[in-house]
Amino acid sequence: MKTQIRLMGALVAALGLLAACGERPPIDVQQIGYRGTGMEQNVNPRIRAALTAKNQIGGIQPPADTSGPLAKDLYQNVQVLSDLSVGEFTRVMLSMTEWVTPED
């Protein structure tokens, strides 16, 4: 009797582990590299639409005021975007922030 209870407990635990493992088939496999390199992308078709909707380009920021001081005059250690006005610099920084960390 104890053996049967242990066996049933082990069976339930094994089924629980198997149910929690990974995604259910079918998974679409797309080759993205040269043949034989093993470079492939696994795509779950059930969640592809949700991922595509999340990865769209965000809205465009309105045009900024080009007059005013330059970014290099107001901020320290600005090397790449130093010739932009403060308004344009802020617009570019906001666009980058929205691109890197979009809100859901």
Describe it for me?
The structure is a single chain. This protein is 43% helix and 8% strand. With 104 residues, it is mainly α. The protein has two domains: 23-56, no CATH class; 60-104, no CATH class. A hairpin with an 8-residue loop joins strand 1 (28-31) and strand 2 (40-43). It starts with a helix and ends with a helix. 2% of the residues are buried.
Task: Describe the protein's topology.
Blueprint: H1 2-20, E1 28-31, E2 40-43, H2 48-54, H3 71-74, H4 86-100
Antiparallel strand pairs: 1-2
Features:
104 residues, mainly alpha, 2 domains, two-stranded antiparallel sheet
The helical percent reads 40-55%
Quick one: biggest sheet? 2 strands, antiparallel
Count of helical segments? 4
Number of strands: 2
Beta content: 5-15%
Element-by-element helix/strand order: HEEHHH
Euclidean distance between termini CA atoms: 53 Å
